[in-house]
Amino acid sequence: MLRRTLARFGIDPYLIALMATVAIAAVFPAHGSGAVVANDAVSIAVALLFFLYGARLSPAAVWEGLLHWRLQSLVFASTYVLFPLLGVLLARIFAGVLPSELIAGLIFVCILPSTVQSSIAFTSIARGNVAAALCSASVSNLFGMVLTPLLVVLLLDSKGGGFSTRAVESIALQLLMPFLVGQLLRRWIGPFLQRHKAPISLVDRGSILLVVYAAFSEGMVAGIWSQVTLADLGLIMALDIVLLAAVLAITTLLSRRLGFSREDEIAIVFCGSKKSMASGIPMANILFPGQALGLIVLPLMLFHQAQLFACAVLAQRYARRSAESNAEAPGLPASAKA
User: Fold this and answer.
1) C-alpha 277: how far from its chain's center?
2) Cβ(128)–Cβ(267) under 8 Å?
3) What angle do CA 160, 151, 69 make, to 5 degrees?
4) What is the SS3 assignment for 300?
5) pTM
6) Integer CA distances (angstroms), 309 to 172, 280, 302, 312, 319, in order
7) Per-residue model confidence (pLDDT) at position 159
8) How many CB atoms lie within 10 A of CB 327?
9) Are 270 and 123 in contact (CB under 8 A)?
10) How far apart, in whole angstroms, are the C-alpha atoms of residue 108 and residue 99?
11) What is the DSSP letter of 10?
């Protein structure tokens, strides 16, 4: 009942769990030997997360999606070109206003891959091209394991980003290797994972909660929260909303100008406007060692809720338009339906 009520208002119950995790970290932060244990657990959880992702992703689905190259190209350009350009622009405008960690976090949001689950779910609700959405989101995440670290080098290195050869090794060991092992074992364990989606989802989300707890615990121990004001939080939330609104508007306009069908437009808008917290927080844990990770991932957590709320409203609007079109179509002449 509670889950349905929250969903009705566009509130993700998982975001509430994230906020609760932040509160627990604020009251009971891990420090000393507890912090060491938490960091070791995070490394294991991140590796498990990408192993499960590799075991569930069908290579055939990825190759099928690549055949729709126009749609995939537009989603790719939105994710890895449009977003970074807008992020750098906003970062330059507000560089002297917000703490450097929040500025880095804003740019980090912009260089992450798209989501998988919510992109597909919203595309389905809106009656769009679900197969294309599945492929776009999957391919985005595959490229993201390489492109996101590279974009960190290009856009955040001068701002104190912690990228190094050690980060490359960590990405390979904690993300790419588990993912490839999952792909190799998919033939044997894939059917089991498909039959047990609920407990596997708990492992996915539990891994992220563990990473968030460790990150915010470290922030509490280091006293980084004294550097952030309510005005800073309000401004970074406003910038997240502006960023999301701009990308939604641009992807919608381009989809229509380039002559995509409504179904393809829906997939482009939802896949091209989202950023993955499931991939982003583990990557941040690797790419920003020894930094104020809690502040760096805060813009991502706020963007996550904003994108869910906005896309929930947008998906319902698309669905209503589709239903109205289908209701009117039987009475129209063939030429008008075309």
Assistant:
1) 4
2) yes
3) 165
4) helix
5) 0.75
6) 34, 19, 11, 5, 16
7) 46
8) 9
9) yes
10) 14
11) T
Q: Angle of helix 262-272 relative to helix 130-156, nearest 10 degrees?
A: 30
Contact 87, 106 (CB under 8 A): yes
Nearest CA-CA partner of 156 in 109, 124, 212, 117 = 109
Confidence category of residue 168, pLDDT binned at 50, 70, 90? low
pLDDT 10s digits, 41-78: 877 877 887 788 778 767 766 566 567 788 989 999 99
Alpha-carbon 82 to chain mean position: 16
DSSP, collapsed to helix, strand or coil, labels residue 113 as coil
Helix%, strand%, coil% for the chain, nearest 5: 85, 0, 15
Q: Enumerate helices (H) and strands (E) in the chain, giving the number of each.
A: 17, 0
Tokens of 217: 């615990």
Rg of the chain taking only CA atoms, in angstroms: 20
Q: How many residues does the chain have?
A: 338
Give the residue among 14, 70, 8 at the shortest CA–CA distance from 267: 70
What's the rounded Cα separation, in Å, for the pair 214 and 30? 7
